[in-house]
Design goal:
- The protein has about 150 residues and is mainly beta.
- The protein has a single domain, classed as Nucleoside Triphosphate Pyrophosphohydrolase, CATH 3.90.79.
- The chain is about 10% helix and about 45% strand.
Length: about 150
Amino acid sequence: MTDIRLPLGGLKFSVRVAILCVRGDQLLANTADGLGFWFLPGGALSTDEDVATCAAREWEEELGVPAGPLHLVGVLENFFGPSSKRQHELGFYFRMEAPPELPQTPFSVLDSPETTCEWVPLSELSARPVYPLAVADFLSAGPGEVRHRVERN
């Protein structure tokens, strides 16, 4: 299988999946030293793979535990990056309750040791840069609701 990341019309087009893993009033997010922002666990969709399977695969590759029940809560059309490296990303966002075996303290991602997972209080989402910015909107989706957003940065 090949990741869906293609150079098209002067930009990079990709399809991404991510998990909004929630434990009580906290969201699991990734960061790295000096990065200055946080992002969600997930990765690129591969050819011949559906988005839910991809989300579960990426989760297990990064965290080493099986994903729990996944609920699609958001679809994001994301346009970002400087003009020389412009990107168009189509993202699918799933909500999942945190598995009990995840530690409460920061820990490294298995397939990217320089990346750290940590719990971000939901009350800090408006002040702390967790990308995509649609995270708070997606977290407020009701049961069975899927929200659609477009972000241009």
